[in-house]
Design a protein that fits this description.
The chain is built from 10 helices and 14 strands. About 35% of the residues lie in helices and about 30% in strands. The strands form 3 sheets. Strands 6-7-8-3-9-10 form a 6-stranded mixed β-sheet, with helices on both faces.
């Protein structure tokens, strides 16, 4: 199956010599949700701007749906929708005029039924004739999504789509993103909310200092790089830490003993730990297990690199 987005040896150097992107290679598959994570200044927005034709690349090749973004820029851009970080809309325009105008920019014929359905799917039906200046931040964000989808793109970029949006609205937008994917739209998402990527993405890419340091299926990533924690609630706090437990990766938190281990190893040491606890006369009244979250994995990867 041909990739909807193909990036080969992409580099971007700004005037003054700053290397924003270095040797980026990436394939995005049709119908997936791909989350691109990275700290501020890592190069996420620069990469998106290059793909969308807002910023020129220095070297390398990018194609969308088989169309080169420079040599076949009209065909490539017609396949792309972009919801940028900043809310860039005309405050005095109505929702309908904004969305309809965006469709016309791409040379698409008028299609009021499609636009009405689009606004309905984004819970904007009752705001059709409202001016943008009267809408809340969350509603404006939905208008930006409608504007990006007005010309029926196959690839949608969501650059920090839920920035400044309350928790309830964020969850509603997650559901809308899933519905878009089910309708055949491929989605590339950048976000600072790691739980957002953990909730929605099929694959995760991590970029740092202009380089992609990892691309992995979300579940495989969490399985390979995640650790597990066993929290043991003790009947009584430990006064002295037994020497027999010194070789274990243990932390004390009040009357709770926390053991961290590699979930991939068959011999995780738990049975031996319990034997030594019993031998030392330490009584456990309850235990809890917890796996590393995607956020913990992300922070650890970026710190190491």
């Amino acid at each position: 199956m041909q990739s909807i987005l193909s990036i080969t040896d992409l580099n971007k150097t700004f005037a003054g010599g700053f290397k924003a992107l270095q040797d980026i290679n990436l394939e995005i598959h049709p119908g997936e949700i791909f989350a691109l994570l990275g700290p501020n200044g890592a190069g996420k927005t620069t990469l998106i701007n290059i793909i969308c034709g807002i910023t020129n690349l220095t070297s390398g090749s990018v194609s969308v749906g088989g169309h080169h973004i420079v040599n076949e820029y009209r065909q490539a851009r017609s396949l792309i929708g972009l919801v940028p970080q900043e809310l860039t809309t005309d405050a005095f325009e109505t929702v309908w005029d904004t969305v309809n105008f965006s469709r016309g920019l791409f040379g698409k014929p008028n299609n009021p039924p499609y636009l009405k359905e689009l606004l309905q799917d984004l819970s904007l039906s009752d705001k059709t004739h409202n001016k943008l200046m009267t809408l809340s931040g969350g509603m404006k964000r939905r208008v930006m999504i409608a504007k990006a989808l007005a010309h029926e793109p196959r690839l949608l970029f969501l650059d920090e789509p839920t920035a400044g949006v309350d928790v309830e609205l964020r969850k509603g937008m997650w559901e809308q993103v899933r519905e878009l994917r089910e309708s055949g739209v491929t989605i590339v998402l950048t976000t600072h909310y790691i739980d957002e990527a953990e909730e929605m993405a099929d694959r995760i890419g991590i970029i740092n200092h202009g380089k992609i340091i990892l691309i992995e299926n979300k579940f495989d990533l969490m399985k390979k790089l995640g650790t597990k924690h066993v929290a043991l609630d003790l009947k009584e706090p430990l006064v002295n830490f037994p020497e027999s437990l010194a070789t274990y990766n243990l932390k004390m938190n009040g009357s709770q003993l926390i053991y961290t281990y590699d979930s991939q190893k068959e011999d995780n040491g738990i049975s031996e730990l319990f034997e030594k606890l019993i031998h030392a006369g330490i009584q456990v009244k309850d235990l809890h297990t917890k796996e590393s979250s995607l956020e913990e994995i992300f922070v650890e990867l970026v710190r190491k690199r």
